[in-house]
Amino acid sequence: MAFEQPHQFEYMADEGDMSDFVEDADGDADEENHGRDMVLDEYDMLNQVSDTSSAQARKGKDIQGIPWDRLNITREKYRLTRLEQYKNYENVPSSGEAVDKECQLMQKGGNYYEFFHNTRLVKPTILHFQLRNLVWATSKHDVYLMSNYSVMHWSSLSGNLSEVLNFSGHVAPTEKHAGSLLEGFMQTQISTLAVKDNFLVAGGFQGELTCKRLDKEGVSFCTRTTYDDNAITNAVEIYDSLGGGMHFMASNNDCGIREYDMERFQLLNHFRYPWPVNHTSISPDRRVVAVVGDHVDGLLMDSQNGKTIAKVVGHLDYSFASAWHPDGCIFATGNQDKTSRVWDIRNLSSPIAVLKNNLGATRSIRFSSDGQFMMVAEPADFVHIYSTKADYKKRQEIDFFGEISGVSASPDDESLYIGIWDRTYASLLQYNRRHTYGYLDSYF
Predict the structure, then answer these.
(1) Burial of 19 (0-12, 13-18, 19+ CB in 10 A)
(2) Are the beta carbons of 64 and 78 closer than 8 angstroms?
(3) pLDDT of 32-58, one tens digit each?
(4) Which of 257, 303, 332, 374 falls between 20 and 30 A from 53, CA-CA?
């Protein structure tokens, strides 16, 4: 991935966000009135209740609370403007254009999740423009996400937002484990996050790893994986290991993958590759790891010894996302060529589906726990939900405005959360699973 040292949270998403557009759209108004209106708008947005409920959305309120009736442009026209002007980041020039003839036309119109709530109290943020795994749902009501230097917990049940861990100052472990840096870290800039069950792992811009048990006070473990100049922790995955117990795997820009156990926090494996590793995901049987990074090809790796089992050939740019279907045979990769590709491990000669995005790269992919859906997040504005039962030929398109900090379905698939970063309209979107009940279901 591109190495860009952030400067005190000057986020890339500041460019071309909705607040810039609102100012531009109102530019023809009288300057004095415009200034007063903007002050009032800001007061309304920051100090009054500005969430959107499903009932309000059904009555016509914009799900993000954007006042289209007060702007000099319609939502539809602004959408066309965004599609025309949004610049997809590419490491391989024109990779997004080159894939057009490969992509199948996927039918829109799926309706698998319905809008439930948008909260503006939650302010997701992004540190690096290519790393968007910063939102994690551990239940249908509990979400963890990054907001500036803090890991925050949002309860959709109580409407309470609380701070779990603050990295703006000194963070040090309260437990003693071999290899842990007892002195901890100062002002850690968090590039990636993973939360599962009661475990949280945050990865930093200088190779830092911070581990915390959510049911205990303090931090369990701190380590710096590498002192390489290009040491960004690109992704972390927490999983139940083959031999029992929780493990996590960290992908790093120093071309390494490191596996740790989460009981004693010991380094179990360190596998090296010829290019920076942007994302890894382990198969349901814990035997195979999908590895993608700064190369057009991906790899399938033996989880026990790190040996390459197969190459995954087809993408035209660098990949930043991967995920496994619960059946263990199907997996997907997401790339800066603006596609997600779905593969069958039993025949890797060609993907079983090539799915084109609207705006830009695939930054995150998730399969639902029941395997019925695959969620794909673009860098901004769109999350696609593909039906696996329909062979990925039918999809629901969730359409909004803003950079995406992460997307996560709850373990029971009942809720889907999308983090939106924007200077004015930052928020957390919640969609709930739609259910079609038969006549007899009402009796049980």
Answers:
(1) middle
(2) no
(3) 344 434 444 544 444 444 899 999 999
(4) 374
